[in-house]
Amino acid sequence: MMLVEVREINPPANEDPLLWRLLTSIAVGDADAACEIVRLYRLRWRIEEVFRALKSDGMRLEETQVHDAGRLFKLAVVGLTAACRTI
Asked: I want to staple 59 with a disulfide (CB 3.0 to 4.6 A). Which of 32, 35, 55, 79 is the partner?
């Protein structure tokens, strides 16, 4: 298990600097590898935002009563489009 710690150097005025402590199973041997871990976690956070918009904080897609696979797929596409636009 590897730990990558990231600190914000120049935060916006009146804001606390960001501090991320990221645990990973990917080997981190240098600064470039650490930057790649940060990039991957940022992408992961975007995915979580989309899921949240599709589920509990948005369309509540998991509560749909649609059971036909084709219709459910279309509903998911509409939801994904809406989630991307709102995020």
From this structure: 79
Give yes or no for residue 20 having a pLDDT over 90: yes
C-alpha distances (whole Å) from 8 to each of 5, 11, 20, 21 are 10, 6, 9, 12
Give how far Cα 35 sits from Cα of 13, 28, 30, 40, 42, Å.
25, 9, 9, 9, 11
Cα–Cα nearest to 84, from 59, 53, 56, 63? 53
Instruction: Compute the distance between CA of residue 67 and CA of residue 45 in angstroms, rounded to an integer.
Output: 29
**pLDDT, tens only, 57-77:** 777 777 778 788 888 888 888
CA 48 to chain centre: 4
Q: Is residue 53 a contact partner of residue 43, using CB atoms and an 8 Å limit?
A: no
Alpha carbons 44 and 74: distance in angstroms, whole number: 24
Amino acid letter, residue 46:
R
